[in-house]
């Protein structure tokens, strides 16, 4: 699925379809990333992810004659989003995974993003967050905690700190995208963001890891999935939904990602799935309904 086809299909798709696709695609990145990291260093894997996705988007942009930013300011805004959403978020996330933080706990930490985004949206974007939404945000935070409450033990302080930086990257990047890049073309804008992220990841991969990689079929398939499905597909859907709705409402979908990640981890990684986790998933689903549903 290319960004061009995503953009044409998503703009005409029912509003209920986009969140469903986004949650599945974004959640898969935690599990696939965990599968790939035994075969590559985190920065090496990120460079592969970003570079392949950037080349795909460049080819699409040239083939479809997509419009490029006019002037240096729109381009600079896209660079900032690329540094925050792509480079900072995912380099920190993969570092945390490499340091032993589980996919579920990583999703838990990043899954608190809706609350911080709602706070930022009310202050910087002047969006009105209703009492119903604040209730849903609070309930979602509690539900996310239930999902992986039994897994937080054993994670290193350094790993948790790295994933917390990922939370900062996606929160700030989402707000910045909504404010300055809401109308940017997904093809050329995505290329600029991913190209910048590739430039950041390459020296880290070379200097810190010596471009550590074991070229197994698992690594090739995982890096391809992360490039096409996550860096292009999931991020494009996020920005499309931000364009069509309020930042706080779209961000609330992240509350469903830890539960979905836990289910995927159970199916793919053999991680445990307990009653508390299922209860947390139900709570987060109700919380998202409160945040995104129409007032009664």
Structure description:
It comes from Massilia timonae CCUG 45783. It is found in: Membrane. This is EamA domain-containing protein. Residues 20-148, 163-288 form the EamA domain. The chain has 296 residues and is an all-alpha fold. The chain has one domain (20-291). Helices cover 77% and strands 0% of the residues. The chain has helices at 3-12, 17-36, 42-63, 72-98, 103-110, 113-124, 131-147, 157-180, 186-209, 217-244, 247-251, 257-269, 275-292. α2 packs across α5 and α4 (72-98) runs antiparallel to α8 (157-180). The chain starts with a helix and ends with a helix. Mean pLDDT is 79; it is low at 1-14.
Considering the chains and any ligands shown, give keywords for the structure:
single chain; 296 residues; mainly alpha; 13 helices; 77% helix; globular; disordered N terminus
Task: Give the topology, please.
Elements: H1 3-12, H2 17-36, H3 42-63, H4 72-98, H5 103-110, H6 113-124, H7 131-147, H8 157-180, H9 186-209, H10 217-244, H11 247-251, H12 257-269, H13 275-292
Helix pairs in contact: 1-10, 2-5, 2-10, 2-12, 3-4, 3-9, 3-10, 4-8, 4-9, 5-12, 6-8, 7-13, 12-13
Put the structure in a nutshell:
This protein has 13 helices and no strands.
**How would you state the average pLDDT, rounded?**
79
Low-confidence stretches: 1-14
Q: Kindly, what is the distance between the CA atoms of the first and last residues, rounded to a whole number of angstroms?
A: 37 Å
Radius of gyration: 18 Å
Strand content: under 5%
> SSE string, helix = H, strand = E?
HHHHHHHHHHHHH
Count of individual domains: 1
**Count of β-strands:** 0
The percent of residues in helical segments reads over 70%
